[in-house]
Amino acid sequence: MCGERCRVFCSQWRLWIRPLVFVVYGAIILGFVPYLIYTLILHEINGFKIAWLIGGIFVFMAIPITLWEIVQHLINYTKPKLQKHIIRILWMVPVYALNAWLVLGYPSSLARYLDTARECYEAYVIYNFMMFLLNFLDDEMDLDATMETKPQTNHIFPLCCLKPWRMGREFIHRCKHGILQYTVFHLLTTFIAFVCGQLGVYEEGKLSPKNAFVYLFVVNNLSQFVAMYCLVLFYKAMRRELDPMSPLAKFLCIKAVVFFSFFQGVAIMFLMKAEFMHELFGIPADNPEEAEKQERKDSSIMQNFLICIEMFIAAVAHHYAFSYKAYIDEEYQTGNCCHTFLLIWDISDVRSDIREHVYVVSEGMKRRLTSRGGRGGWPGGTSAVGGASGGDEHTRLIAPHAHSGSRSTHRYMSTSDSEHDIVIHQGEGSDVEDIKAI
Fold first, then answer.
1. Fewer CB atoms inside 10 A, N or C side of the chain?
2. Which region among 20-29, 288-297, 391-400 has the lowest average model confidence (pLDDT)?
3. Which of the listed ranges 199-213, 219-233, 380-394 does the model predict with the highest average pLDDT?
4. CATH number of the domain within which 61 lies
5. What is the pLDDT of residue 285?
6. Where does the record locate the signal sequence feature (predicted)?
7. Which of residues 434 and 22 earns the better pLDDT score?
8. Which tens digits make up the pLDDT trace of 330-345?
9. In angstroms, rounded to a whole number, what is the distance separating the alpha carbons of residues 375 and 373?
């Protein structure tokens, strides 16, 4: 009798697993962590070791939340063109969290290499979010034609004095390539920073004209500003069409992790320079050179400790903002999860988009230099506007009638080389799209 009850209880694990996780996590945060801090302080343990231990607790609470969401997306992989980008975005939490925790514990030996990898992934995430938005819209409507029918979207502060981009393909391409440039620039500046670090002319946080950090810092920030500005401008133009997939929550998750962590680091650095934290960290005031080194070290420690905690909050936010529930379809036969997982890491679609970006930029420069080409310099034409159906995110993504209307040309969908394994059958004159992973 007892064995039967245990079997039934275990078979209904989906009903009690979430409340159990809430209770366990709540007990750790409200009970175990304060008790651990109190005990370590009583034993006069070094403050940096305490930060590393506490940061590790939050990191290893954040990672299971994200991994659970990723696995659920792989199990319910019903929209490969969208979920591919979602899974790549979700990996941001483990990448950031593990990077911050390892750098916190081993600042001298691992920081340069891990920070290089994290910064590259940061640019990759922003690119994937833009492609997620484009693929969602391109699957629902003729995006070019829809954009051409919309009222002119003007630039916003602080670029409100610039000439507006013509609505339609030009607007979409400018937004897309404004984000892609950050991916390209960030890869280049990260590589340059790594080389300069090996040559001894790059020290993070040191404000000196002889330090490459200053120049790369300015370039990276201008590039990041352009990318996020283009993302905001695109959202402003297509807000009504994007509403069913709750873009604001998703956008805030991306912006909070990328922008907040950056400005947080800048704020900590300036607080150190203003000597607001010298007494807290015991930084010597009589030796300026030693004080500067200690400032950079302590700024890095504080920044990475805060990121460890913030990634737990980000994991919870991602769990709700990029939920797998909108993609559940009982009638859909998904492929092997391991095979699907490998498809996620095929970045040939990124290479294709970067090649396109380089081509478009080079052609644009040629047109300017030769004074050729009119306003409609973007390739391709337009067709009739496809209707955007109403409803929530699940209705738009899964319901068979979600793609009714004129057939989309899927002009902006990014496709990797490995996606020939995803076969799309769409009958002539049929409104139902049957997508199966082989």
1. N
2. 391-400
3. 219-233
4. 1.20.1070
5. 67
6. none
7. 22
8. 776 666 667 667 776 7
9. 7
pLDDT band at 172 (very low <50, low <70, confident <90, very high): confident
- In whole angstroms, what is the distance from residue 293 CA to residue 190 CA? 22
How many domains does one find in the chain? 1
The angle at the Cα of 255, spanning 251 to 256, to the nearest 5 degrees, equals 115
Contact 135, 85 (CB under 8 A): yes
Nearest one of 179, 150, 153, 149 to 164, comparing CA atoms: 153
* Residue 283, both tokens: 């930084």
Cβ-count burial of 34 within 10 angstroms (0-12 exposed, 13-18 middle, 19+ buried)? exposed
Contact call for residues 148 and 168 (beta carbons, < 8 A): yes
Neighbours of 325 (CB within 10 A): 10
Q: Give domain status of residue 37, yes or no.
A: no
Continuous H helices in 274-334: 278-281, 288-321
> What contacts 115, CB < 8 A, 6 or more positions away?
99, 103, 204
Share the mean pLDDT of the chain.
76
Q: How are beta strands 422-426 and 433-437 bridged, if at all? A: antiparallel
Q: Which domain holds residue 429?
A: 46-373+383-437
The number of residues making up the chain comes to 438
Structure tokens at 331: 């009638």
Does residue 29 belong to any structural domain of this protein? Answer: no
Give domain status of residue 36, yes or no: no
Please check whether residue 39 lies inside any domain of the structure: no
Phi, psi torsion values for 172, nearest 5 degrees: -65, -45
pLDDT at 135 over 80: yes
Nearest to residue 54, comparing CAs of 35, 73, 76, 67?
Answer: 35
pLDDT exceeds cutoff 80 at 189: yes
> What is the Cβ-side half-sphere exposure of residue 88, based on CA atoms within 13 angstroms?
27
Output the pTM of the full model: 0.77
Cα separations in angstroms, 295 against 30, 203, 212, 261, 284: 31, 12, 19, 18, 10
